[in-house]
Structure formats: structure tokens, C-alpha cells
């Protein structure tokens, strides 16, 4: 959100918001994984799965949420809006790397150090007045980190930049720099 603000972009969409909207339209029986947190989506899987159920459930949830993401991107393109789209569901390789008529910059934010990751949940709890259940996230930190490992490995395979989020200001600066570099490359090829 801060990156959007600093770039003068006033439209920000979250994949969590898209998932929540989809929950209103699709029953748990029809689309079970969207009715769980991203790191708990494996609980919705009916049958034995090959691989880590946490990751398999997460990927299934992402595939569903990406339908809504595609619609949001399509609307932004139709209306000529600049938009920042953020969220765990934006897994490299599940969405197009390029779109005709759009400057698309995909960046993955990572918290490599587990203790720093844990601290982020404490800080979020303090700054939001406990709106999101910190204990739930801390109890599932191993699952959350396995999902993060999956996302960052996909990012590296798809040549999507991975930015370490140990320092917020530095992270914001790096993301803005990646956006500006992409804009300059687009300008040079136009």
C-alpha cells in the first residue's frame, strides 16, 4: 500500500479481498479451499494428495483466486487505471508475466529469517489492535513459511525479483526502483 501511495497510485487491490468476495458467491462444497486461510487451504482437500497438503491446498486456492485477479486486472486495463495488486495468491507462473497494454511488475516479498517473520506478526498485532488473530499465525508459522518457500522458489524459477523484507523503508525503496526500471525499459522500447 505504501508503494502505491509513493507512486501516486490510488487503486490498491488485495487478493485476500478478492478471495473474501469469492467466498460470498461460492459455497464451501463447491470451492472449499477459498474458505480457508491460505496456509490452511490443505485442510479442504478431500483426498490423499501427492506432496505437501499445505502447499497443494494453497496452490488450488490460488488458481481459484486468480480468476478474480484476472477480472480485476481486466477492469483496470479497460478503464485505464493504474493499480497495485498485492497478496500471497500472486504466485509467479500462475499469472501472465506480461500483458498487452500494461506495465506489469511482479515482485515477491520475502522474510527469510524466521525470528524476524515471527516479529512481523507481533508488530502487525500491535499496530492493528489485534484485529487479526496473531496466535493463529504464530501457531501456523511453519505452514506459512512452507508457503513462502514455495512462492520464492517459483519466483526464482520464473525470474521474478525476490525482495527481502527485513527493513520496511529499504523494501519499499527496492520495489519502487524495480517499478521505475520496468517503466524505463518500456519507455525505451516504445
> Mean of the pLDDT scores?
94
Q: What's the helical proportion of residues?
A: 40-55%
Oligomerization status of the protein chains: single chain
Largest sheet: 2 strands, parallel
What is the level 1 CATH name?
Alpha Beta
- Terminal CA distance reads 29 Å
Architecture, according to CATH?
3-Layer(aba) Sandwich
Sum this structure up briefly.
The protein has helices spanning 2-7, 15-25, 53-79, 114-128, 134-139, 141-157, 168-189, and strands spanning 12-14, 84-86, 108-110, 162-164. It has 190 residues and is mainly alpha-helical. 19% of the residues are buried.
Commentary on this structure:
The protein has one domain (2-189): Rossmann fold (3-Layer(aba) Sandwich). The model has no long low-confidence stretch (mean pLDDT 94). The protein is mainly alpha-helical and 190 residues long. The strands form two sheets. The protein has a two-stranded parallel sheet. Strands 3-4 form a two-stranded parallel ribbon. The protein is built from seven helices and four strands.
Which features does this protein show?
mainly alpha; globular; Rossmann fold; two-stranded parallel ribbon; 190 residues; 4 strands
Topology:
Layout: H1 2-7, E1 12-14, H2 15-25, H3 53-79, E2 84-86, E3 108-110, H4 114-128, H5 134-139, H6 141-157, E4 162-164, H7 168-189
Parallel strand pairs: 1-2, 3-4
